[in-house]
Amino acid sequence: MSTDNNADTRQVVTGKQTMTPSEAFVETLVANGVTDMFGIMGSAFMDAMDIFAPAGIRLIPVVHEQGAAHMADGYARVSGRHGTVIGQNGPGISNAVTGIAAAYWAHTPVVIVTPETGTTGIGLGGFQECHQLPMFQEFTKYQGHVTHPSRMAEYTGRCFDRAMSEMGPTQLNIPRDYFYGEIECEIPEPARLDRGPGGNKTLNEAAELLANAKFPVIVSGGGVVMADGVDACQALAERLGAPVVNSYQHNDSFPASHPLWCGPLGYQGSKAGMKLIAQADVVVALGTRLGPFGTLPQHGLDYWPKDAKIIQIDADHKMLGLVKKIAVGICGDAKDAAEAITERLASRDLVCDATKAKRADQIASEKDAWERELDEWTHEKDPFSLDAIDEAQGETPFSGGEYLHPRQVLRELEKAMPEDAMVSTDIGNINAVAHSYLRFEKPRSFFAPMSFGNCGYAFPTMIGAKVA
Protein backbone atom coordinates (compact mmCIF):
# COMPACT_ATOMS: atom_id res chain seq x y z
CA MET A 1 0.00 0.00 0.00
CA SER A 2 1.36 3.40 -0.97
CA THR A 3 2.07 6.18 1.48
CA ASP A 4 2.58 8.68 -1.37
CA ASN A 5 0.09 11.51 -0.82
CA ASN A 6 -0.37 11.85 -4.58
CA ALA A 7 -0.84 8.16 -5.33
CA ASP A 8 -3.07 6.72 -2.61
CA THR A 9 -4.22 3.37 -3.98
CA ARG A 10 -5.60 2.03 -0.70
CA GLN A 11 -9.07 0.53 -0.78
CA VAL A 12 -11.70 1.21 1.89
CA VAL A 13 -14.28 -1.41 2.78
CA THR A 14 -17.83 -0.55 1.69
CA GLY A 15 -21.21 -1.42 3.09
CA LYS A 16 -21.91 -2.84 6.53
CA GLN A 17 -19.14 -5.10 7.71
CA THR A 18 -18.27 -7.03 10.84
CA MET A 19 -14.95 -5.85 12.28
CA THR A 20 -13.22 -4.78 15.47
CA PRO A 21 -13.51 -1.13 16.64
CA SER A 22 -9.76 -0.77 16.00
CA GLU A 23 -10.32 -1.83 12.39
CA ALA A 24 -13.22 0.63 12.09
CA PHE A 25 -10.97 3.40 13.42
CA VAL A 26 -8.12 2.59 11.03
CA GLU A 27 -10.40 2.10 8.01
CA THR A 28 -11.87 5.55 8.65
CA LEU A 29 -8.37 7.03 8.81
CA VAL A 30 -7.65 5.45 5.42
CA ALA A 31 -10.93 6.79 4.02
CA ASN A 32 -9.73 10.28 5.00
CA GLY A 33 -6.37 9.85 3.30
CA VAL A 34 -4.23 9.55 6.44
CA THR A 35 -0.77 8.23 5.57
CA ASP A 36 1.24 9.80 8.41
CA MET A 37 0.52 10.30 12.10
CA PHE A 38 2.68 11.96 14.73
CA GLY A 39 2.96 10.90 18.36
CA ILE A 40 4.36 8.46 20.90
CA MET A 41 3.24 4.86 21.04
CA GLY A 42 1.26 3.96 24.14
CA SER A 43 -0.56 0.95 25.48
CA ALA A 44 -3.91 2.74 25.17
CA PHE A 45 -4.08 2.27 21.39
CA MET A 46 -1.80 -0.74 20.89
CA ASP A 47 -4.49 -2.82 19.21
CA ALA A 48 -5.07 -0.17 16.53
CA MET A 49 -1.33 0.47 16.22
CA ASP A 50 -0.81 -3.14 15.12
CA ILE A 51 -2.74 -2.46 11.91
CA PHE A 52 -1.38 1.02 11.09
CA ALA A 53 1.43 -0.31 8.92
CA PRO A 54 -0.66 -2.86 6.99
CA ALA A 55 -3.13 -0.03 6.32
CA GLY A 56 -0.38 2.21 4.88
CA ILE A 57 -0.16 4.52 7.90
CA ARG A 58 3.21 5.52 9.33
CA LEU A 59 3.48 6.60 12.98
CA ILE A 60 6.30 9.13 13.21
CA PRO A 61 7.65 9.08 16.79
CA VAL A 62 8.60 12.23 18.66
CA VAL A 63 10.49 13.20 21.82
CA HIS A 64 7.54 15.14 23.22
CA GLU A 65 3.89 15.25 22.22
CA GLN A 66 3.87 19.05 21.87
CA GLY A 67 6.27 18.51 19.00
CA ALA A 68 3.87 15.96 17.48
CA ALA A 69 1.06 18.51 17.43
CA HIS A 70 3.33 21.11 15.81
CA MET A 71 4.42 18.55 13.22
CA ALA A 72 0.80 17.80 12.39
CA ASP A 73 0.19 21.55 12.10
CA GLY A 74 3.05 21.98 9.61
CA TYR A 75 1.98 18.87 7.72
CA ALA A 76 -1.57 20.14 7.31
CA ARG A 77 -0.54 23.66 6.34
CA VAL A 78 1.68 22.39 3.53
CA SER A 79 -0.50 19.55 2.26
CA GLY A 80 -3.92 21.12 2.68
CA ARG A 81 -4.98 17.80 4.26
CA HIS A 82 -5.45 16.74 7.86
CA GLY A 83 -2.57 16.52 10.28
CA THR A 84 -3.10 13.72 12.79
CA VAL A 85 -1.71 13.36 16.35
CA ILE A 86 -2.04 10.46 18.77
CA GLY A 87 -0.55 9.62 22.16
CA GLN A 88 -0.94 7.78 25.43
CA ASN A 89 -3.86 8.77 27.65
CA GLY A 90 -3.13 11.18 30.49
CA PRO A 91 0.33 12.79 30.32
CA GLY A 92 0.86 11.99 26.64
CA ILE A 93 -2.34 13.81 25.75
CA SER A 94 -1.87 16.72 28.16
CA ASN A 95 1.58 17.33 26.64
CA ALA A 96 -0.10 18.18 23.33
CA VAL A 97 -2.36 21.00 24.55
CA THR A 98 0.06 23.82 23.62
CA GLY A 99 0.61 22.47 20.11
CA ILE A 100 -3.11 22.13 19.50
CA ALA A 101 -3.65 25.69 20.75
CA ALA A 102 -1.15 26.94 18.16
CA ALA A 103 -2.96 24.98 15.45
CA TYR A 104 -6.26 26.47 16.60
CA TRP A 105 -5.06 30.03 16.01
CA ALA A 106 -3.58 29.00 12.67
CA HIS A 107 -6.98 27.53 11.62
CA THR A 108 -5.24 24.24 10.83
CA PRO A 109 -7.26 21.01 10.36
CA VAL A 110 -5.43 18.89 12.94
CA VAL A 111 -7.20 15.87 14.42
CA ILE A 112 -5.88 14.83 17.83
CA VAL A 113 -6.79 11.29 18.85
CA THR A 114 -6.93 11.03 22.63
CA PRO A 115 -7.27 7.48 23.99
CA GLU A 116 -8.75 7.70 27.48
CA THR A 117 -8.82 5.69 30.67
CA GLY A 118 -11.04 2.61 30.31
CA THR A 119 -14.73 3.01 31.07
CA THR A 120 -14.63 0.70 34.09
CA GLY A 121 -12.00 2.88 35.78
CA ILE A 122 -13.15 6.40 34.96
CA GLY A 123 -13.54 8.52 38.09
CA LEU A 124 -11.45 6.27 40.33
CA GLY A 125 -8.24 8.24 40.05
CA GLY A 126 -6.38 5.41 38.36
CA PHE A 127 -3.06 5.38 36.55
CA GLN A 128 -2.77 8.16 33.92
CA GLU A 129 -6.39 9.19 34.38
CA CYS A 130 -7.53 12.75 33.69
CA HIS A 131 -10.46 14.60 32.18
CA GLN A 132 -9.24 14.96 28.60
CA LEU A 133 -12.15 16.82 27.02
CA PRO A 134 -12.11 19.97 29.21
CA MET A 135 -8.39 20.59 28.66
CA PHE A 136 -8.89 20.91 24.89
CA GLN A 137 -12.29 22.62 24.97
CA GLU A 138 -10.92 26.10 24.31
CA PHE A 139 -8.67 25.01 21.44
CA THR A 140 -10.81 22.70 19.34
CA LYS A 141 -13.65 23.31 16.91
CA TYR A 142 -15.33 20.01 17.72
CA GLN A 143 -14.89 17.27 20.32
CA GLY A 144 -16.04 13.77 19.51
CA HIS A 145 -16.29 11.35 22.41
CA VAL A 146 -16.89 7.74 21.40
CA THR A 147 -19.80 6.66 23.58
CA HIS A 148 -19.96 3.04 22.40
CA PRO A 149 -17.60 0.81 20.39
CA SER A 150 -20.20 0.49 17.62
CA ARG A 151 -19.93 4.26 16.99
CA MET A 152 -16.15 4.28 16.45
CA ALA A 153 -16.26 4.93 12.68
CA GLU A 154 -19.06 7.49 13.03
CA TYR A 155 -17.20 9.68 15.52
CA THR A 156 -13.85 9.26 13.77
CA GLY A 157 -15.31 10.34 10.43
CA ARG A 158 -17.12 13.28 12.02
CA CYS A 159 -13.91 14.60 13.61
CA PHE A 160 -12.17 14.57 10.24
CA ASP A 161 -15.14 16.23 8.53
CA ARG A 162 -15.46 18.93 11.16
CA ALA A 163 -11.74 19.76 11.12
CA MET A 164 -12.16 20.76 7.47
CA SER A 165 -15.56 22.39 7.68
CA GLU A 166 -14.77 24.32 10.86
CA MET A 167 -11.15 25.06 9.80
CA GLY A 168 -9.39 24.06 12.97
CA PRO A 169 -8.40 21.22 15.30
CA THR A 170 -10.85 18.58 16.46
CA GLN A 171 -10.50 15.99 19.22
CA LEU A 172 -11.42 12.31 18.99
CA ASN A 173 -11.64 10.94 22.55
CA ILE A 174 -11.78 7.13 22.82
CA PRO A 175 -12.01 5.07 26.03
CA ARG A 176 -9.18 2.59 25.69
CA ASP A 177 -11.36 -0.47 26.16
CA TYR A 178 -13.49 0.59 23.18
CA PHE A 179 -10.75 -0.44 20.71
CA TYR A 180 -11.60 -4.10 21.41
CA GLY A 181 -14.49 -6.43 20.63
CA GLU A 182 -16.57 -7.02 17.53
CA ILE A 183 -19.00 -4.59 15.90
CA GLU A 184 -20.99 -4.18 12.72
CA CYS A 185 -20.56 -0.80 11.06
CA GLU A 186 -20.18 1.09 7.80
CA ILE A 187 -17.19 3.34 7.12
CA PRO A 188 -18.56 6.85 6.41
CA GLU A 189 -17.47 8.64 3.24
CA PRO A 190 -15.68 11.95 3.92
CA ALA A 191 -17.92 15.01 3.60
CA ARG A 192 -16.31 18.24 2.37
CA LEU A 193 -18.09 21.58 2.09
CA ASP A 194 -18.26 23.43 -1.20
CA ARG A 195 -18.32 26.94 0.27
CA GLY A 196 -18.62 29.02 -2.86
CA PRO A 197 -18.07 32.78 -3.10
CA GLY A 198 -20.76 33.98 -0.69
CA GLY A 199 -24.15 35.52 -1.23
CA ASN A 200 -25.00 37.59 -4.30
CA LYS A 201 -26.28 40.47 -2.20
CA THR A 202 -23.07 40.99 -0.25
CA LEU A 203 -20.87 40.36 -3.30
CA ASN A 204 -22.78 43.07 -5.19
CA GLU A 205 -22.44 45.44 -2.23
CA ALA A 206 -18.70 44.81 -2.12
CA ALA A 207 -18.35 45.43 -5.85
CA GLU A 208 -20.28 48.69 -5.55
CA LEU A 209 -18.06 49.91 -2.70
CA LEU A 210 -14.93 49.09 -4.68
CA ALA A 211 -16.25 50.67 -7.86
CA ASN A 212 -16.48 53.97 -5.99
CA ALA A 213 -13.30 53.62 -3.93
CA LYS A 214 -10.54 56.15 -4.46
CA PHE A 215 -7.77 54.32 -2.57
CA PRO A 216 -8.63 50.62 -2.05
CA VAL A 217 -6.18 48.40 -0.14
CA ILE A 218 -6.26 44.60 0.18
CA VAL A 219 -5.22 42.68 3.30
CA SER A 220 -4.35 39.16 2.15
CA GLY A 221 -4.70 36.66 4.98
CA GLY A 222 -4.21 33.01 5.78
CA GLY A 223 -7.58 32.19 4.26
CA VAL A 224 -6.17 33.12 0.86
CA VAL A 225 -3.44 30.50 1.28
CA MET A 226 -5.87 27.88 2.58
CA ALA A 227 -8.16 28.45 -0.40
CA ASP A 228 -5.29 28.35 -2.93
CA GLY A 229 -6.45 31.85 -3.78
CA VAL A 230 -3.23 33.84 -4.26
CA ASP A 231 -3.78 34.15 -8.03
CA ALA A 232 -7.34 35.33 -7.45
CA CYS A 233 -6.16 37.90 -4.91
CA GLN A 234 -3.53 39.09 -7.40
CA ALA A 235 -6.12 39.47 -10.16
CA LEU A 236 -8.36 41.57 -7.91
CA ALA A 237 -5.42 43.73 -6.82
CA GLU A 238 -4.38 44.33 -10.42
CA ARG A 239 -7.91 45.29 -11.45
CA LEU A 240 -7.99 47.87 -8.67
CA GLY A 241 -4.34 48.89 -8.76
CA ALA A 242 -4.55 48.30 -5.02
CA PRO A 243 -1.57 47.84 -2.69
CA VAL A 244 -1.64 44.44 -0.97
CA VAL A 245 -0.44 43.90 2.60
CA ASN A 246 -0.04 40.53 4.29
CA SER A 247 -1.94 39.87 7.47
CA TYR A 248 0.21 39.14 10.53
CA GLN A 249 2.49 36.11 10.08
CA HIS A 250 1.01 35.27 6.67
CA ASN A 251 3.86 36.63 4.56
CA ASP A 252 3.33 33.89 1.97
CA SER A 253 -0.18 35.09 1.08
CA PHE A 254 1.02 37.32 -1.81
CA PRO A 255 4.19 37.14 -3.96
CA ALA A 256 6.82 39.56 -2.68
CA SER A 257 8.14 40.26 -6.17
CA HIS A 258 4.81 41.69 -7.31
CA PRO A 259 4.85 45.50 -7.63
CA LEU A 260 1.63 45.76 -5.57
CA TRP A 261 3.04 43.77 -2.61
CA CYS A 262 3.75 46.06 0.36
CA GLY A 263 4.70 43.69 3.18
CA PRO A 264 3.11 42.53 6.42
CA LEU A 265 1.05 44.50 8.91
CA GLY A 266 1.27 44.09 12.68
CA TYR A 267 4.17 43.71 15.07
CA GLN A 268 7.52 44.60 13.43
CA GLY A 269 5.74 44.84 10.09
CA SER A 270 6.27 46.96 6.99
CA LYS A 271 6.19 50.74 7.33
CA ALA A 272 5.36 50.94 3.63
CA GLY A 273 2.28 48.77 4.07
CA MET A 274 1.21 50.72 7.16
CA LYS A 275 1.58 54.14 5.51
CA LEU A 276 -0.37 52.98 2.46
CA ILE A 277 -3.26 51.36 4.31
CA ALA A 278 -3.55 54.51 6.43
CA GLN A 279 -4.77 56.26 3.25
CA ALA A 280 -7.40 53.66 2.37
CA ASP A 281 -11.02 54.58 1.99
CA VAL A 282 -11.99 50.94 1.36
CA VAL A 283 -10.16 47.92 2.81
CA VAL A 284 -10.72 44.41 1.49
CA ALA A 285 -9.93 41.98 4.32
CA LEU A 286 -9.58 38.81 2.26
CA GLY A 287 -9.43 35.62 4.30
CA THR A 288 -8.43 37.31 7.55
CA ARG A 289 -10.09 37.88 10.89
CA LEU A 290 -8.11 41.14 11.33
CA GLY A 291 -6.76 39.98 14.68
CA PRO A 292 -5.83 42.67 17.22
CA PHE A 293 -2.11 41.84 17.32
CA GLY A 294 -1.94 42.07 13.54
CA THR A 295 -3.43 45.56 13.32
CA LEU A 296 -1.97 47.27 16.38
CA PRO A 297 0.03 50.55 16.14
CA GLN A 298 3.67 49.96 15.29
CA HIS A 299 6.84 51.98 14.64
CA GLY A 300 5.05 54.93 16.25
CA LEU A 301 2.32 54.72 13.58
CA ASP A 302 -1.34 54.42 14.51
CA TYR A 303 -1.95 53.44 10.92
CA TRP A 304 -5.32 51.66 10.83
CA PRO A 305 -7.68 53.88 8.76
CA LYS A 306 -10.41 54.98 11.15
CA ASP A 307 -12.94 56.01 8.49
CA ALA A 308 -12.32 53.34 5.86
CA LYS A 309 -15.17 51.05 4.87
CA ILE A 310 -14.15 47.42 5.43
CA ILE A 311 -15.20 44.53 3.21
CA GLN A 312 -14.41 41.38 5.17
CA ILE A 313 -14.40 37.97 3.49
CA ASP A 314 -14.05 34.88 5.65
CA ALA A 315 -15.18 31.27 5.42
CA ASP A 316 -16.17 31.42 9.11
CA HIS A 317 -19.17 33.69 9.61
CA LYS A 318 -18.24 34.14 13.28
CA MET A 319 -15.16 36.13 12.26
CA LEU A 320 -17.12 38.74 10.29
CA GLY A 321 -17.06 42.04 12.17
CA LEU A 322 -15.57 40.40 15.26
CA VAL A 323 -12.56 42.71 15.63
CA LYS A 324 -13.24 45.66 13.31
CA LYS A 325 -16.48 47.36 12.36
CA ILE A 326 -17.27 46.29 8.80
CA ALA A 327 -19.41 47.71 6.00
CA VAL A 328 -19.88 44.40 4.15
CA GLY A 329 -19.37 40.87 5.45
CA ILE A 330 -19.09 37.99 2.99
CA CYS A 331 -19.14 34.43 4.28
CA GLY A 332 -17.38 32.47 1.58
CA ASP A 333 -14.23 30.96 0.17
CA ALA A 334 -11.52 33.59 -0.26
CA LYS A 335 -10.56 32.45 -3.76
CA ASP A 336 -14.13 32.16 -5.03
CA ALA A 337 -15.14 35.49 -3.49
CA ALA A 338 -12.16 37.34 -4.98
CA GLU A 339 -12.94 35.88 -8.40
CA ALA A 340 -16.62 36.80 -8.10
CA ILE A 341 -15.83 40.40 -7.16
CA THR A 342 -13.22 40.73 -9.92
CA GLU A 343 -15.78 39.46 -12.43
CA ARG A 344 -18.29 42.06 -11.25
CA LEU A 345 -15.69 44.81 -11.70
CA ALA A 346 -14.28 43.60 -15.01
CA SER A 347 -16.43 45.70 -17.34
CA ARG A 348 -17.10 48.64 -15.02
CA ASP A 349 -15.46 52.03 -14.94
CA LEU A 350 -13.94 52.42 -11.47
CA VAL A 351 -13.26 55.70 -9.71
CA CYS A 352 -9.76 54.45 -8.87
CA ASP A 353 -8.95 53.75 -12.56
CA ALA A 354 -8.06 57.41 -12.99
CA THR A 355 -5.32 57.27 -10.34
CA LYS A 356 -3.74 53.87 -11.06
CA ALA A 357 -0.45 55.28 -12.32
CA LYS A 358 -0.20 57.81 -9.50
CA ARG A 359 -0.88 55.18 -6.86
CA ALA A 360 1.64 52.81 -8.45
CA ASP A 361 4.29 55.52 -8.12
CA GLN A 362 3.29 56.10 -4.50
CA ILE A 363 3.48 52.37 -3.73
CA ALA A 364 6.95 52.14 -5.27
CA SER A 365 8.12 55.23 -3.38
CA GLU A 366 6.95 53.98 0.03
CA LYS A 367 8.50 50.56 -0.60
CA ASP A 368 11.82 52.10 -1.64
CA ALA A 369 11.91 54.21 1.52
CA TRP A 370 11.22 51.16 3.69
CA GLU A 371 13.87 49.10 1.91
CA ARG A 372 16.44 51.81 2.54
CA GLU A 373 15.55 51.79 6.22
CA LEU A 374 15.94 48.02 6.36
CA ASP A 375 19.36 48.38 4.72
CA GLU A 376 20.39 51.19 7.06
CA TRP A 377 19.91 49.15 10.20
CA THR A 378 22.12 51.54 12.22
CA HIS A 379 19.02 53.27 13.60
CA GLU A 380 19.14 50.71 16.44
CA LYS A 381 20.65 52.40 19.53
CA ASP A 382 20.74 49.66 22.16
CA PRO A 383 24.21 48.86 23.60
CA PHE A 384 24.64 45.71 21.53
CA SER A 385 23.69 47.53 18.32
CA LEU A 386 26.08 50.39 19.08
CA ASP A 387 28.88 47.83 19.38
CA ALA A 388 27.74 46.23 16.11
CA ILE A 389 27.69 49.64 14.39
CA ASP A 390 31.22 50.28 15.55
CA GLU A 391 32.17 46.81 14.33
CA ALA A 392 30.71 47.50 10.88
CA GLN A 393 31.69 51.13 10.44
CA GLY A 394 34.56 51.83 12.82
CA GLU A 395 38.12 52.29 11.70
CA THR A 396 39.36 49.31 13.69
CA PRO A 397 36.63 46.67 14.05
CA PHE A 398 37.64 44.33 16.85
CA SER A 399 36.84 41.16 14.86
CA GLY A 400 38.22 42.31 11.55
CA GLY A 401 34.69 42.77 10.27
CA GLU A 402 33.59 39.16 10.80
CA TYR A 403 30.65 39.82 13.13
CA LEU A 404 27.21 40.88 11.91
CA HIS A 405 24.24 42.59 13.53
CA PRO A 406 21.11 40.37 13.53
CA ARG A 407 19.48 42.70 10.98
CA GLN A 408 22.48 42.26 8.69
CA VAL A 409 22.14 38.50 9.07
CA LEU A 410 18.46 38.66 8.12
CA ARG A 411 19.20 40.81 5.07
CA GLU A 412 21.85 38.40 3.86
CA LEU A 413 19.58 35.42 4.54
CA GLU A 414 16.84 37.09 2.52
CA LYS A 415 19.21 37.52 -0.43
CA ALA A 416 20.41 33.91 -0.21
CA MET A 417 17.00 32.24 0.09
CA PRO A 418 15.92 30.28 -3.00
CA GLU A 419 12.50 31.12 -4.42
CA ASP A 420 10.94 27.86 -3.24
CA ALA A 421 12.33 27.93 0.31
CA MET A 422 10.10 27.10 3.27
CA VAL A 423 10.77 29.01 6.49
CA SER A 424 9.50 28.49 10.01
CA THR A 425 10.06 30.98 12.81
CA ASP A 426 9.64 30.65 16.54
CA ILE A 427 8.28 33.50 18.66
CA GLY A 428 10.20 36.48 20.00
CA ASN A 429 11.55 39.81 18.79
CA ILE A 430 14.21 38.58 16.36
CA ASN A 431 11.64 36.27 14.79
CA ALA A 432 9.22 39.17 14.44
CA VAL A 433 11.91 41.38 12.93
CA ALA A 434 12.57 38.58 10.41
CA HIS A 435 9.07 39.11 9.02
CA SER A 436 10.22 42.43 7.60
CA TYR A 437 13.11 40.83 5.72
CA LEU A 438 12.16 37.34 4.59
CA ARG A 439 10.27 37.34 1.29
CA PHE A 440 8.11 34.62 -0.21
CA GLU A 441 6.89 33.94 -3.73
CA LYS A 442 4.77 30.86 -3.14
CA PRO A 443 1.98 30.05 -0.69
CA ARG A 444 2.40 27.37 2.00
CA SER A 445 6.02 28.36 2.51
CA PHE A 446 6.02 30.43 5.73
CA PHE A 447 5.07 29.09 9.15
CA ALA A 448 4.85 30.99 12.42
CA PRO A 449 3.10 30.31 15.75
CA MET A 450 0.37 32.91 15.17
CA SER A 451 -1.59 34.39 18.01
CA PHE A 452 -0.77 31.75 20.63
CA GLY A 453 2.87 32.76 20.35
CA ASN A 454 4.52 29.75 21.95
CA CYS A 455 8.20 28.86 21.91
CA GLY A 456 9.27 25.47 20.61
CA TYR A 457 7.13 25.83 17.50
CA ALA A 458 9.52 26.31 14.59
CA PHE A 459 11.58 23.09 14.43
CA PRO A 460 8.83 20.43 14.78
CA THR A 461 6.50 22.38 12.50
CA MET A 462 9.13 22.33 9.77
CA ILE A 463 9.60 18.58 10.23
CA GLY A 464 5.88 18.11 9.60
CA ALA A 465 6.03 20.47 6.62
CA LYS A 466 8.92 18.47 5.19
CA VAL A 467 7.02 15.19 5.62
CA ALA A 468 4.13 16.70 3.65
Automatic annotation (TrEMBL):
Source organism (scientific name): Halomonas saccharevitans
Biological-process GO terms, alphabetical: isoleucine biosynthetic process; L-valine biosynthetic process; taurine catabolic process
Cited PANTHER family: ACETOLACTATE SYNTHASE CATALYTIC SUBUNIT, MITOCHONDRIAL, THIAMINE PYROPHOSPHATE ENZYMES
GO molecular function terms noted in the UniProt entry: acetolactate synthase activity; flavin adenine dinucleotide binding; magnesium ion binding; sulfoacetaldehyde acetyltransferase activity; thiamine pyrophosphate binding
GO cellular component, one term: acetolactate synthase complex
Record protein name field: Sulfoacetaldehyde acetyltransferase
Stretches assigned to the Thiamine pyrophosphate enzyme central domain: 203-340
Cofactor requirements of the protein: Mg(2+); thiamine diphosphate
EC number: 2.3.3.15
Catalytic EC class: transferase
Thiamine pyrophosphate enzyme TPP-binding domain sequence ranges: 426-468
Keywords: Acyltransferase, Magnesium, Metal-binding, Thiamine pyrophosphate, Transferase
Homology family: Belongs to the TPP enzyme family.
InterPro entries, A to Z: DHS-like_NAD/FAD-binding_dom, Sulphoacetald_Actrfrase, THDP-binding, Thiamin_PyroP_enz_cen_dom, Thiamin_PyroP_enz_TPP-bd_dom, TPP_enz, TPP_enzyme_TPP-bd
Domain Thiamine pyrophosphate enzyme N-terminal TPP-binding: residue ranges: 19-134
